[in-house]
């Protein structure tokens, strides 16, 4: 479609009822800097769609995006300065985990506006960037981003993984602790009795003398 437009820098495709973009559509545009596809009917983007495209500004507002891949899509936007993702029906479940990590990794002002969850109900109208990982993906535990800015490949496991700390103390441990306490009381009492008896005997001997 865009073959021969090597010098094209700005492309406006908004309000065109576009439902899908074919793979490689923008590859013939090596100088494209701004791409506006807001107010369409896009529900997904194909892999490699932005390969070798030096976009600095991307507008995807008001589409039908529930998820947006990072691998082979967003991670190809090396020159990105601004991206608009508002007013999409984002499904804030585990499938959106990579997007949340990507948003937190890039520069603070790169994502313009809010990314509000549409579903599930418990996360509705919550900003993706402030949504806790355990709400976004139950069972994942606490995600700790790598201080270097790279995505962490590990996350702490929740109790359901069988490796968390138990919530209750085993009965055998309680019995052992109680037994140790009783023995301690007995020994202390016996020591006190011996001390008192010994002191009385010494006192009695002094009176006899």
From TrEMBL:
Transmembrane annotation, as ranges: 173-197
Topology of the protein relative to the lipid bilayer: Single-pass type I membrane protein
PROSITE patterns for the chain: LRR
One Pfam family hit: LRR_8
GO biological process, one term: axonogenesis
Keyword Signal: yes
Principal cellular location given in the protein's record: membrane
Location in the cell: Membrane
GO cellular component, as recorded: membrane
Alphabetized InterPro entries for the sequence: Cys-rich_flank_reg_C, Leu-rich_rpt, Leu-rich_rpt_typical-subtyp, LRR_dom_sf
SUPFAM superfamilies, A to Z: L domain-like
Family: Belongs to the SLITRK family.
Organism ancestry: Eukaryota, Metazoa, Chordata, Craniata, Vertebrata
Protein name: (spotted green pufferfish) hypothetical protein
Domain of life: Eukaryota
Domain LRRCT span(s) in chain numbering: 88-138
Keyword annotations from UniProtKB, A to Z: Leucine-rich repeat, Membrane, Repeat, Signal, Transmembrane, Transmembrane helix
């Amino acid at each position: 479609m865009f073959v021969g437009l090597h010098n094209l820098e700005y492309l406006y495709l908004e309000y065109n009822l576009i439902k899908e973009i074919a793979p490689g559509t923008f590859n013939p545009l090596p100088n494209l800097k701004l791409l506006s596809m807001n107010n369409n009917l896009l529900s997904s983007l194909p892999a490699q769609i932005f390969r070798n495209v030096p976009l600095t500004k991307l507008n995807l507002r008001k589409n039908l995006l529930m998820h947006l891949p990072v691998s082979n899509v967003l991670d190809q936007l090396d020159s990105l300065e601004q991206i608009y993702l508002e007013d999409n029906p984002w499904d804030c479940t585990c499938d959106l985990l990579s997007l949340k990590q990507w948003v937190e990794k890039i520069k603070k002002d790169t994502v313009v506006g809010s990314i509000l969850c549409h579903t599930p109900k418990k996360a509705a109208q919550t900003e993706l960037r402030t949504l806790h990982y355990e709400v976004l993906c139950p069972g994942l535990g606490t995600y700790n981003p790598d201080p270097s800015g790279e995505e962490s490949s590990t996350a702490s496991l929740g109790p359901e993984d069988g490796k968390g700390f138990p919530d209750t103390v085993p009965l055998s441990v309680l019995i052992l602790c109680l037994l140790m306490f009783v023995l301690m009381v007995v020994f202390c009492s016996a020591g006190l009795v011996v001390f008192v008896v010994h002191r009385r005997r010494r006192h009695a001997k002094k009176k006899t003398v």
